[in-house]
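User: Can you predict the 3D structure of Ribosomal RNA large subunit methyltransferase G? Sequence below.
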Amino acid sequence: MPLLTSPFAELDLIRQPEQADDPLQAFDAADQYLLEHLASQGLPSDCRVLVLNDSFGALAASLCADLQVVSSGDSHLARLALEKNLARNERPFDSVPFVPANEAWQGPFDLVLVRVPKTLALLEEQLIRLQGHLAPGAQVIAAAMIKHLPRAAGDLLEKYIGPVQASLAQKKARLLTASLEERPRVSSPYPTRYQLDAPALELVNHANVFCREGLDIGTRAFLPHLPRDLGQARVADLGCGNGVLAIACALLNPEAQFTLVDESYMAVQSALENWQAALGDRPVEVRAADGLAGQEKQSLDVVLCNPPFHQQQVVGDFLAWRMFQQARDALVVGGALYIVGNRHLGYHSKLARLFRGVEQVAATPKFVVLKARK
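Assistant: Sure. Here are the predicted C-alpha cells for Ribosomal RNA large subunit methyltransferase G:
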C-alpha cells in the first residue's frame, strides 16, 4: 500500500477493520491537500488542533509530532485505527487524546480540522458544539473529496462559524475555510425523537444514528418476527443503532439478558437512553465496540442483526460478512443468528457457508428475515 507522504511525516497507515489484500487505502487526496495547506501556514508548536472525523487517523498521526492534537469522532473503529496507526509509525499509541462524539471537548482550540462526514446532521451537531471552544481568531477548515462535498456543508460552516472561503480543486479534493465571526448561540436540534406504534415506544436518536427521523424499512420488516420464548437466553443486538430491536425483543422476553453493541458512540448513547426509558433499571450491557470482536467465544444464545452495507461512502458486504463470522464465534453450539437483509444481497448463501442450517423466517417484496443455526 502507498505511504501517506506530507511535509509533516511519511506514514504507513491501515484501515479498520483490517482485511487481507485490502484494495482501499487509509487516506485520500483531501487528507494530503489539507496537510500541504497546513504546512504552508507556519503554525506554532503550541497551536491546539481539534481533528474531527479522521476516519483512520491520517491527519492526527501526521500532525501530532509538531502540534498539540486532539481527535474526536463518532466511530469506535476510527479510534482503534488511530491507536494502531500511531503505534505502527512509532508514535505512542496515546499521543493523541481521543474524545468520543458524545462527550465534551476541552477547548479552546486555535484550529479545527474537519473531514466532512457522510451524515450532515453529525457535522451540524459538531459545529454547534464548537460554541465556546474556539480561541479568538480560530479557523475551521473542512476537507473532502468533491464528489462527497454537498453544498450544505459550506452553508453549515457559514451559519455556525463565519465566512467561508472555498479553495481551488486539487486532485478532486477541496478545502473550505471558515473564519471565526460572532454568531448567536444556538441550541442543538439533536437528538430527534419519533414514535413507534408496535411496540409503543418513543425513540431518541442522536445526530449520527442511522435512520434518525424514523424507523428504517428493514427493521420494520424484522420487528414482527423477533424470537419469543427465549427464557434466560443471552442475547446480543449487533450493530444496535438506537436499540429498537433489542428493546422490542426484551419486551417479549422478560427474563433474557441483553448486550447491545455498535461502533457509533451516538448510537450507543441513544440505545442506552431508549432502553432505560422503555425498561427502567432492567440490567443491560451497552458498549461501543468493534462488533463482537471482544465477546467471549460461545457466550451467547441469540444474536440479532440488521447489518450495514457501507462504511462511510464505501459500499460492500465486507462488514456484514465480518459480523456474521463474529456472531458464529460468539454463539454456543445450537445458538442462532437472526438477520434482516435486502433480498438482492444474497445473505442466505453467505450464511450457509458459516452455519449448519439457514431458514427463511419471513419475507417481503424487498427484505428477507433469516435464522442461521450454529
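Residues 265-279 form the longest helix (15 residues). The CA atoms of residues 232 and 323 lie 24 Å apart.
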